[in-house]
Amino acid sequence: MIDISDLHKSYKMGQNSLHVLKGIDFKADEGEMVAIMGSSGSGKSTLLNILGMLDEADAGTYILDGKEIKDLDETKAAIYRNKFLGFVFQSFNLIAYKTALENVMLPLYYQKVSRKERQTRAQKFLEQVGLGPWATHRPNELSGGQKQRVAIARALVSKPKVLLADEPTGALDSKTSYELMDVLQTINNQGITLLIVTHEEDIANMCKRIVHLRDGIIVSDKKVTQVKASQYVE
Amino acid sequence: MWNRDRWREMFYTLSKNKLRTGLSGFTVSLGIFIFVLLFGFGNGLKNSFQDFFLDDATNTIWLYPGQTEKPYRGYKAKRRIIFRNDDLTDIQQNFGFYLAYITPRISRGALVKHGMESNNYTVRGIAPGHQNAEKTIITNGRYINANDLQERTKFAVVGRLVEQDLFQGKSALGENIDVGGVSYKVVGVYRDEGGDNEERLIYIPYTTRQQLEKSNDRIDQIILAFRPELGYAGAKEFEKKLNAFMRKKHFIAPNDQRGIYVRNRTADLKESQQFASILQLIVTFVGLGTLLAGIIGISNIMVYVVKERTKELGIRKAIGATPKSVVGMILHESVFITTVAGYVGLLAGVGTLAIIGDSLEEYFIINPFIGTNTAVAATLTLIAFGAIAGYIPARRAAKIKPIIALRDD
Q: What is the per-residue pLDDT for B123?
């Protein structure tokens, strides 16, 4: 599903150049649930942004679902993002003046899906994350966990191949975090590939594989026994 | 552009962000409103100015006899100059090339009666050319003609207000009026843009007037018009020659200030046209200034709006909005707001001008108005600049990588 090799990325800061990713080789198959761990500055978010086509690599190859991603202009990137990828951010990034349902409908708007179908599909995904009755609420009327679940529904509604989550539980307490991980595990079990950036050990252990980054290179990559989040949720 | 979904999305965004929508709309409305108002006032000023100066024909030269103040060729000073009919014929013979028409004017006050109604009016003995000199507009019947002069007919042309006063709303045409004891038949009724006083006059053939005054041949003043194609320089030349000719004929010293008065309307016109063009310049300047202020206002708002929405645009891009659709959305919204608000401001401005109407006449603003073309052009300019002002920051926002836009909290 995802195949990157020898990925480099550096940021220019005035005269200095900060080498963030120093040759990453990484593969993920369909249906995997990978936690990317590392201390801050290790390059884990940069890696995720490049995978999500929100940022560009300086060197290296990136193949997503058999297609090589390179020389992307913004228009092409937007189309790929819309087709293949779903995003979940630490700060939710919902549009404040739209209701939960309308936020979930938005990716379909850019796919030129008819309004009626947008509504039905968005409602279905809201129900899947357990927020059916909250469809008409605005983000500021929802709790952090609910907002993140709206964000997940929004990421899923365009039926992506890969879901990228950048510290999805970073702004949530542990109980809400586990509830969210339960939702993510359910999604993963339906066959969607998940990449989760986190620095929390317990969250990482709820994935199927953990990749450690340090100073821009992968230092370890191992499969783990998945801890079921459902056991913490009553 | 005509995608229903896109309109729906736009209306939704606008209605959910009422403050932002209202603010940018208000800026545009206010800009157009003030522009229309000021431009209308400027036109009103010009109108009252034209009413003051331009009600009569402007290609005329007026001759008034005076009293000499210098002895000349054996004649004493303080001699009263009198114009006679032969002055008319002499001018016609000598200056035929320059002349469009010539008319004398003999003014007398008289008590005028019809039935039970009576009033005092000024009665002018004139020739047909007088109609052009005063820009008299015949609304009913006819003006005094050459035949009337020949036959010394007792025909009269009365002003609109004379008819109103004496005939109480009925038509005066064909009726007889008593002017100072002599009966005249009304053959015409006229209107004049020069105001009420100009419509309280009665015109009769000057030959008739002379016959009544013991068949003399005196005339009060001479009004003559030169052919307009002479232009300003030609008219000045004509005036100079005419002045010299009349002084020679009536034995008035060339440097005598009071023997004869020659007033050239063209010179007046030239001055008044200069003044009018300065007024026009001020009006245009004020208009452009207001428009510029409006443009700056809408530009500021648009920059602010896009800045405020950077994060939203980042989110939209992350979930699949292409840069084109982002720019399109912002443009669509800004053009829509400026169009609607511009139209509202336009209507409000034109409406206000209509309400004001002539109520500011004492401030020299008569019938303030704005030409449709000017108003529409101003609105379109503002719409265009609103679009440009939205396009530049929108394009920049669309180019920002979503990851940077999302970081912007």
A: 94
